[in-house]
Amino acid sequence: AVASILIVLIIAPGLIMSRGFFSAPFTKRILPSNPVNELISAILPSVVLHALYLVIVQNWTDYQVDFPLLGNLLFSSSNPDRIKESFSNLSTFFVPIAIYHIVLWAVAYLLGLIGRVIIRFGSLDINLAYFRFNNKWHYIFSGEITRFPDVQRPPITRIDMRVVDMLVDTADGSIIYSGILQDYSLNNNAELDSLTLSHVFRRPLTEEVNGKNDAGE
Amino acid sequence: YKVPGALMVIPYSKVVNINLHYAA
To answer: Looking only at Cα atoms, what is the longest distance across chain A?
Structure first.
């Protein structure tokens, strides 16, 4: 049990950093929705964060990380004296140890957040597909898609409203809804779930198909 | 016909296609 708590503590910074990175509502992500992958992808950043943080703590504070003690706890030493020593050490230094982790978590969250801010404000996600967030609908509805280098269209910098015409399938046939897009929501796969319109006009398509539109469109 | 003053929520599963205009 102690070893698994330790492993969680070791991986936590990477997980928290990705929480910070994806904390804005529009950055809705589709992670490989299995928790094991999430844990595995958190290991590398965690190790890097721990290593950097350790260098700082060992060199600039009076506290030292007790690696033999960590080893005892991780590999559940069979020597009862050493286990006792480890736990009494843990209780003596409980507050510094807790502060060590809380500070590291806060730093990890901030680093993730700063990373996102740099990508967004530096327009890295617009210019480089690698940095693009999985919420493609954000780029479409915000007009940012017109600034993508691979989209051949004059970039739009100012949008007052987004007018949407939608062809909707209903039991009574196809209906065109036109309105001003106010909001949208995504499902867990980052696909559109629903759209919220105001000032809606509704027009059945069937009439046109049945003769009124001579062009037959 | 017009549906005044209301917000309309349309489930995307019913949508066949979307035509989007950016208005400035």
So the answer is: 94
DSSP secondary structure letters along A39-104: HHHHHHHHHHHHHHHHHHHHHHSS----HHHHHHHHTT-S-HHHHHHHHHHHHHTHHHHHHHHHHH
Sheet strand arrangement including A173-186: B2-11, A192-204, A173-186, A161-170, B15-23
Q: What's the N-to-C CA distance of chain A in angstroms?
A: 68
The reported pLDDT for the residue numbered A114 is 95
How far away is chain A from the Cα of B13, in angstroms, using its nearest Cα?
7
Which range is least confidently modeled, A37-46, A47-56, A96-105, A118-127? A37-46
Distance from CA of A179 to the nearest CA of B (A): 9
Interface of A with B (CB under 8 A): 140-141, 143, 146, 156, 158-170, 174, 177, 179, 181-182, 191-203
Neighboring chain B residues of A169 at a CB cutoff of 8 Å? 14-16
Q: Residue A20 has what DSSP assignment?
A: H
**pLDDT higher at A198 or A77:** A198
Which of A195, A201, A205, A207 to mutate to test binding with chain B, by most B CBs within 10 Å of its CB? Answer: A195
CA atoms of A109 and A20, how far apart (whole Å): 5
Task: Enumerate the β-bridge partners of residue A183.
Answer: A196
Size of interface A-B (CB pairs under 8 A): 87
Number of other residues whose CB lies within 10 A of the CB of residue A210: 8
